[in-house]
């Protein structure tokens, strides 16, 4: 008689409790990911990324790398299924979110027809700050695209389709709105002239470099650590990472700094509003991350604040 | 808004359901009772004022001026309800409550108060009377719920009158905004044009049009959740009655549209 007892897995719908699938002869060391693949064989359109399996209808979702025999189930496991809706890979999400603003801003910069009045189509602004703003905005999104393709490693595989639509609408609409004013024929350059523009530009460049350095540092952390060994980020030889002494999420700090300096550079209220909203969102994320770090690591430095050094 | 009948009854019987949210404490309950009583009284004052003015004048015209001040005071006072949700003494969503109260306050100040020519319109009377009756019933409902003694009449009135008063109020609001449009466009009220130092522009006229358009999805989506804490009660009260009314149609269940409609209900 073989020593290995096979498991049986019953998958029920989380809401209706109907049996959707019954898998027998499942290996004890099978992972949830493998069970999802088996489930996918019965339901062609429910690919694994779309499946959410739980032990209890209202419980926490099971991870793909959870092993069946380590779960608190008998030899017959009952799992509850929920359809997460169409999913999109994170890379795809970010590419869509960032190509939009890039392209839309340029449409406004070159004053495509039907945006401004007829005689202003394809004209260019006499102000140098407008061209500078276009360059900054474009470089910002190109940098983000490069990071998405080459730098970031995403822990979760996918995102629901509804979220990507919502995020894209937000990014695209906002960049259209602020590009409209910056490239408008009636645009008024900053009150303090070139001095204001140059100082703001300098801070913008520094913040962009800082943001990039932090992303690289975080990526290296994931690379050397691997998924099991969790470490929190430390300052390195790069001066931009020294912000880690004061802040848990310096990438968000630099991001806010970049947008704030962009709003000062263009002296445009919609840009300031965008900066403010981004600040609120990133503060929420930073606080969450800070709490996760503090809870997970006992030796987490006390000096660090979530996003603004010494303050927030 | 304050705690509903269901919530407070359960919390009054202490540790029945551990998963239920904690209701307001004794001090908070006292404060909420006072708040709801004051609001009920305030809207009663408005109602009485309207009736008296109508009886004195004999016409519907120009009644807004008689109750202008109490209306502004008590409708603006409803902003406190957002605070109640934020602090947690009322188990409702801050976002939904905020959205509702702010849309009322917007209509009171940014449309009716700001555009004087609109104040003589009959649509103003339409939404003011809808609001008055709704608020009297709603605040007395909350008062009685907090005191754990809710007369069935008030519960019935709340859910029945709502079906008429809500569309009435929305219609009045829409007509008022529509009436304000030409005056806003003519005077450029609350609008900013280019060029200016901060490179920004805002057209209040367009904003009002967009507000009117957004009324359709927004007001219909917040229809049941206006009473977020009572959604389950609402469903359990209304749906059986609709089912009862639709019983004769069961013989038509072969007809797919009817089937589809019924399947939406339960």
Automatic annotation (TrEMBL), chain A:
Keywords: Acetylation, Endoplasmic reticulum, Fatty acid biosynthesis, Fatty acid metabolism, Lipid biosynthesis, Lipid metabolism, Membrane, NADP, Oxidoreductase, Phosphoprotein, Transmembrane, Transmembrane helix. Belongs to the steroid 5-alpha reductase family. The keyword Endoplasmic reticulum applies. InterPro entries: 3-oxo-5_a-steroid_4-DH_C, SRD5A/TECR, TECR-like_N, Ubiquitin-like_domsf. The chain crosses the membrane at residues 88-110, 169-187, 199-218, 239-254, 260-285. Gene3D superfamilies: Phosphatidylinositol 3-kinase Catalytic Subunit, Chain A, domain 1. Pathway: Lipid metabolism; sphingolipid metabolism; Sphingolipid metabolism; Lipid metabolism; fatty acid biosynthesis. The keyword Ubl conjugation does not apply. GO terms for biological process: very long-chain fatty acid biosynthetic process. Pfam families: Steroid_dh, TECR_N. GO terms for cellular component: endoplasmic reticulum membrane. Residues 158-311 form the 3-oxo-5-alpha-steroid 4-dehydrogenase C-terminal domain. Its EC number is 1.3.1.93. It comes from Hucho hucho. Residues 7-83 form the TECR-like N-terminal domain. Involved in both the production of very long-chain fatty acids for sphingolipid synthesis and the degradation of the sphingosine moiety in sphingolipids through the sphingosine 1-phosphate metabolic pathway. Catalyzes the last of the four reactions of the long-chain fatty acids elongation cycle. This endoplasmic reticulum-bound enzymatic process, allows the addition of 2 carbons to the chain of long- and very long-chain fatty acids/VLCFAs per cycle. This is Very-long-chain enoyl-CoA reductase.
UniProtKB/TrEMBL annotation, chain B:
Pathway: Lipid metabolism; fatty acid biosynthesis. Keywords: Endoplasmic reticulum, Fatty acid biosynthesis, Fatty acid metabolism, Lipid biosynthesis, Lipid metabolism, Lyase, Membrane, Transmembrane, Transmembrane helix. The keyword Isomerase does not apply. GO terms for cellular component: endoplasmic reticulum membrane. InterPro entries: Tyr_Pase-like_PTPLA (IPR007482). It catalyses: (3R)-hydroxyhexadecanoyl-CoA = (2E)-hexadecenoyl-CoA + H2O; a very-long-chain (3R)-3-hydroxyacyl-CoA = a very-long-chain (2E)-enoyl-CoA + H2O. Signal peptide: none annotated. Its main location: endoplasmic reticulum. It comes from the Eukaryota. It is a multi-pass membrane protein. Its EC number is 4.2.1.134. Residues 1-20 are annotated as: Disordered. The chain crosses the membrane at residues 32-55, 76-103, 159-181, 201-218. It is found in: Endoplasmic reticulum membrane; Membrane. One of its GO terms (molecular function) is very-long-chain (3R)-3-hydroxyacyl-CoA dehydratase activity. One of its GO terms (biological process) is fatty acid elongation. Catalyzes the third of the four reactions of the long-chain fatty acids elongation cycle. This endoplasmic reticulum-bound enzymatic process, allows the addition of two carbons to the chain of long- and very long-chain fatty acids/VLCFAs per cycle. This enzyme catalyzes the dehydration of the 3-hydroxyacyl-CoA intermediate into trans-2,3-enoyl-CoA, within each cycle of fatty acid elongation. Thereby, it participates to the production of VLCFAs of different chain lengths that are involved in multiple biological processes as precursors of membrane lipids and lipid mediators. Belongs to the very long-chain fatty acids dehydratase HACD family. This is Very-long-chain (3R)-3-hydroxyacyl-CoA dehydratase. It comes from Hucho hucho (huchen).
């Amino acid at each position: 008689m073989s020593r290995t007892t096979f498991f049986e897995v019953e998958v029920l719908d989380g809401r209706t409790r109907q049996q959707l699938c019954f898998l027998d002869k499942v290996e004890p060391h099978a992972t949830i990911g493998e069970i999802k693949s088996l489930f996918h064989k019965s339901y062609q359109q429910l690919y694994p990324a779309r499946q959410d399996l739980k032990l209890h209808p209202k419980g926490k979702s099971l991870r793909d790398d959870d092993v069946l025999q380590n779960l608190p189930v008998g030899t017959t496991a009952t799992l509850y299924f929920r359809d997460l809706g169409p999913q999109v890979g994170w890379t795809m999400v970010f590419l869509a979110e960032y190509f939009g603003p890039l392209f839309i801003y340029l449409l406004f910069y070159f004053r495509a027809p039907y945006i401004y009045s007829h005689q202003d189509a394809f004209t260019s602004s006499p102000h140098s700050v407008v061209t500078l703003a276009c360059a900054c905005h474009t470089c910002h999104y190109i940098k983000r695209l490069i990071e998405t393709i080459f730098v970031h490693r995403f822990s979760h595989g996918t995102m629901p389709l509804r979220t990507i639509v919502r995020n894209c609408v937000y990014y695209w609409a906002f960049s259209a709105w602020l590009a409209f004013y910056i490239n408008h024929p009636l645009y008024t350059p900053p009150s303090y002239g070139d001095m204001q523009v140059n100082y703001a530009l300098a801070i913008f460049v520094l913040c962009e470099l800082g943001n990039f350095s932090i992303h690289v540092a975080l990526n290296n952390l994931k690379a050397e650590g691997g998924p099991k060994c969790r470490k929190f980020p430390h300052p390195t030889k790069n001066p931009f990472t020294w912000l880690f002494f004061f802040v848990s999420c310096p990438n968000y700090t630099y991001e806010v700094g970049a947008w704030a300096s962009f709003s000062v550079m263009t002296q445009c209220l919609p840009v300031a509003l965008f900066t403010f909203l981004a600040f609120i969102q990133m503060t929420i994320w930073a606080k969450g991350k800070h709490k996760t770090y503090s809870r997970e690591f006992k030796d987490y430095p006390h000096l660090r604040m979530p996003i603004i050094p010494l303050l927030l | 808004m304050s705690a509903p009948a269901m919530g407070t009854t359960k919390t009054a019987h202490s540790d029945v359901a551990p998963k239920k949210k904690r209701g307001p404490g004794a001090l908070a309950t006292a404060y909420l009772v006072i708040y709801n009583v004051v609001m009920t009284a305030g809207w009663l004052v408005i109602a009485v004022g309207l009736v008296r003015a109508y009886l004195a004048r004999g016409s519907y015209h120009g009644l807004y001026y008689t109750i202008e001040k109490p209306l502004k005071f008590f409708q603006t006072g409803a902003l406190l309800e957002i605070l109640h949700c934020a602090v947690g003494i009322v188990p409702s969503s801050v976002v939904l409550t905020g959205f509702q109260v702010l849309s009322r306050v917007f209509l009171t100040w940014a449309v009716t108060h700001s555009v004087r020519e609109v104040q003589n319109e009959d649509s103003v009377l339409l939404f003011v009377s809808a609001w008055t009756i709704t608020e009297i019933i709603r605040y007395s409902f909350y008062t009685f719920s907090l005191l754990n003694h809710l007369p069935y009449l008030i519960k019935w009135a709340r859910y029945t009158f709502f079906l008429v008063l809500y569309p009435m109020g929305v219609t009045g609001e829409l007509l008022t905004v529509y009436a304000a449009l030409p005056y806003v466009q003519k005077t450029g009220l609350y609008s900013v044009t280019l060029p200016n130092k901060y490179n920004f522009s805002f057209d209040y006229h367009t904003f009002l049009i967009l507000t009117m358009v957004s009324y359709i999805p927004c007001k219909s989506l917040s229809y049941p959740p206006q009473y977020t804490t009572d959604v389950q009660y609402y469903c359990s009260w209304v749906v059986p009655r609709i089912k009862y009314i639709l019983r004769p149609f069961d013989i038509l269940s072969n007809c797919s549209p009817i089937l589809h409609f019924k399947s939406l209900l339960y």
